[in-house]
């Protein structure tokens, strides 16, 4: 890939593009918003596949259980959104995280992405949007090094570089640190949206969600109710906002003219096993989102969801 093409691939794409979404959809409520947002922009985003990523928290008994639940949640969202025809393009991901930085974990999702990448070129890349542990994507890269040039990797992972408390300890990154090191070190065009310190600003509250979603359609009702139920588990009787992190990953693909977020080129950081970042100046460039235009993106999200 030429340097000119590399930097072009680090800018929001023009025209219709092919996209794969890799998601831990059952992890919390934000993945459902991101899936729905992507489905709501068919004129721009041609969805080639949706992959279920592993996760482990209070909503799963382990990474494999998290992946299986995410797979079922993806199918549920497709039905609610009236896109059941995409069910054949949903793939199960890894049952575990990468054991090290040299060993791929084979899965339907990793095999699918590794094979699909061969149909693309640096001039016409495949966009892979990852909003969970990066295991499936990293495995695919290990299986097919051509992904480094034929794909643009858009990931929500890690906290902001300026965040003082172990920026690489963010949920998506710490679960798949070996995978994160592969992705940030492989030389592929990578777009990072950090969580706390940047994307954490993208948070609606219950009155806003009720005004824009409640009663609009079955999908909006599901998203509203699911979000309120989740928030009430820790903030019952109190004011709250809920960050819907993953929407920002999809939004970067629609970010013509920086209407939704601002970014800058930085040397690719190295997530370390002590959950700190190393930031050597000699590394290749990645695109780093440093600001979310919260109101502009929230408006487009709510308009999109209301249109289902």
Q: Would you mind describing this structure in some detail?
A:
- This protein has 308 residues and is α/β, with parallel strands linked by helices.
- The chain has two domains: 3-203 and 243-306, Inosine-uridine Nucleoside N-ribohydrolase, Chain A (Alpha-Beta Complex), CATH 3.90.245.10; 205-240, no CATH class.
- The protein is built from twelve helices and ten strands.
- It has helices spanning 3-8, 30-39, 63-80, 108-116, 135-143, 147-150, 171-175, 177-185, 206-213, 218-235, 247-252, 294-306, and strands spanning 17-23, 45-52, 90-91, 126-130, 151-156, 190-193, 261-267, 270-271, 277-278, 285-292.
- The protein is globular.
Topology, element by element:
Blueprint: H1 3-8, E1 17-23, H2 30-39, E2 45-52, H3 63-80, E3 90-91, H4 108-116, E4 126-130, H5 135-143, H6 147-150, E5 151-156, H7 171-175, H8 177-185, E6 190-193, H9 206-213, H10 218-235, H11 247-252, E7 261-267, E8 270-271, E9 277-278, E10 285-292, H12 294-306
Parallel strand pairs: 1-2, 1-4, 2-3, 4-5, 5-6, 6-10
Antiparallel strand pairs: 7-10, 8-9
């Amino acid at each position: 890939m030429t340097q000119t093409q590399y930097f072009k691939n680090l800018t929001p794409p023009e025209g219709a593009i092919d996209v794969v979404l890799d998601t831990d959809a059952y992890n919390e409520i934000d993945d459902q918003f991101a899936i729905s947002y992507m489905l709501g922009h068919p004129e721009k985003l041609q969805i080639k596949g949706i992959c279920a990523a592993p996760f482990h928290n209070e909503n799963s008994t382990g990474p494999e259980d998290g992946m299986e639940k995410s797979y079922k949640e993806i199918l549920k969202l497709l039905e609610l959104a009236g896109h059941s025809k995409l069910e054949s393009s949903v793939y199960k991901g890894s049952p575990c995280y990468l054991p090290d930085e040299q060993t791929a974990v084979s899965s339907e999702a990793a095999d699918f992405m590794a094979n699909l990448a061969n149909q693309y070129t640096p001039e016409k890349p495949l966009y892979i949007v990852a909003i969970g542990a990066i295991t499936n994507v990293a495995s695919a890269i290990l299986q097919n090094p051509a992904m480094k040039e034929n794909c643009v990797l858009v990931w929500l992972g890690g906290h902001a570089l300026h965040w003082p408390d172990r920026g690489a300890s963010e949920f998506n990154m710490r679960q798949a640190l070996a995978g994160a090191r592969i992705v940030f070190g492989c030389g592929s065009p990578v777009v990072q949206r950090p969580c706390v310190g940047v994307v954490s600003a993208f948070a609606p509250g219950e009155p806003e969600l009720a005004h824009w979603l409640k009663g609009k359609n079955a999908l909006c009702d599901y998203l509203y109710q699911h979000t309120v139920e989740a928030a009430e588990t820790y903030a019952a009787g109190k004011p709250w906002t809920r960050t819907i992190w993953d929407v920002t990953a999809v939004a970067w693909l629609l970010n013509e003219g920086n209407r939704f977020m601002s970014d800058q080129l930085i040397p690719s950081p190295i997530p370390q096993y002590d959950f700190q970042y190393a930031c050597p100046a000699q590394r290749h460039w990645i695109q780093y989102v440093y600001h979310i235009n919260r109101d502009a993106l929230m408006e487009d999200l709510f308009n999109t969801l209301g249109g289902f």
